[in-house]
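step 4 of 6: structure.
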Amino acid sequence: MKFGIVVFPGSNCDEDCYHVAKDLLGCEADYIWHHDRDLKGADAVILPGGFAYGDYLRAGALARFSPVMESVAEFAKKGGAVLGICNGFQVLLEAGLLPGAMQINRGLRYVCRDVHMKVENDATPFTALYPKGSVVKMPIGHMEGNYTAPPDVLGALEREGRVVFRYCDAEGRVVDSANPNGSTAGIAGICNREGNVVGLMPHPDRCSESLLGNDAGIKMFESAVAALAAR
Amino acid sequence: MKVEVRVYPREGVLDPQGKAIAAALGRLGHSGVRDVRAGKVFFIEIAGSDAKAIEADAKKMAEELLANTTIEGFDIRVVA
């Protein structure tokens, strides 16, 4: 099992993802520079958090034109497992690999804190080990996490069970006061129709070992290992 | 030639920046402000003299990169 971690100029969670894959899970892992088109035989590709291209113009808007994104799109089309975390999620949206767009947080501020989310889809390669309906706590750190999409797209996401994570309180209630950024319907993470491409704003890579006070995120990576081994 | 591309939140899309600016203007005493939407303007210089072709080129730029058409609209003005 090999994780490929894409590195854009301005990515800053690439090493966190590498550490989780390599040191914590004992998997193979390799960085993939954004100018490369070779995914180096990765079984799962991660677009990490950070500020690709300084978030100039819009978060993710310039990164989507990196050569590597053509390979990632092709990989995704063939059913390859792709995970976008935070800025990586924004890149997936701009690239059209996931639908919708991000707006600035409704409070107009960068928000950096722990949030709770409800796992609503346990059928993706990155969520298979979370019980459906369970509540997980993960940290967020972003300025543009206010997810929006046209009504028909939102309808399709809900109908097809493609909302993977939804912001909630510690008891699992999806309430506005638990929504950190104004995201439509409390959406924290979604997947494509096939379920192999997943994006979320919270950071599983920043909560994957008890040393950090929270290891709720490791299951996302373990899920990928289990799901891909089963293929 | 010079082209201006204005990019702005689509009608109906919530604009948190515009809302905050409208509230700030109200606090400053501009009580008549009903609504503000905040956008961006790109001032672009393009080689050539065919205004039609340049406008078409700018439209392509807006659709490909300058605007995220999921949430933003745009308009183009060929200035000179």
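step 5 of 6: annotate
 - The mean pLDDT of chain A is 97.
 - The first helix of chain A runs from residue 14 to 24.
step 6 of 6: archive
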